[in-house]
User: Fold this.
Amino acid sequence: MNVIPAQLQTLTKRVEKTPALIIALFSGLTALWSVYRLLWLVYAGFALSSYGLSPISLIISFVVWIVVAVAAGLAAFAFWTRYSTAEEKPEQ
Assistant:
C-alpha cells in the first residue's frame, strides 16, 4: 500500500540521496514545531476561557497549524522514503 501521492513521488524521484535526507529532516522539524504550536494554542484557549473570554478566535490558527503539520509530515515521510530507497551513484 502506497501512502505517498503519485505526483509527490515523481517530484521526490528527481532529488538525490543527500538532499532528500536534508529536506526530510527539516520537514520533520517543521512538523514537530507545528505540533508544539498546536499545544500552545490549546493552552491559550484554556487560559482565555479561564478569564471568561472565548477561544473561538484561535480556530483559524489551529486549522492553519494542522494543515502545516500534515503537509510537513507528508513531505518528511516522502523524502525519507526517497532517502532510504535511493541507491548511491557509482563512482567514476
Notes: The first helix runs from residue 6 to 12.
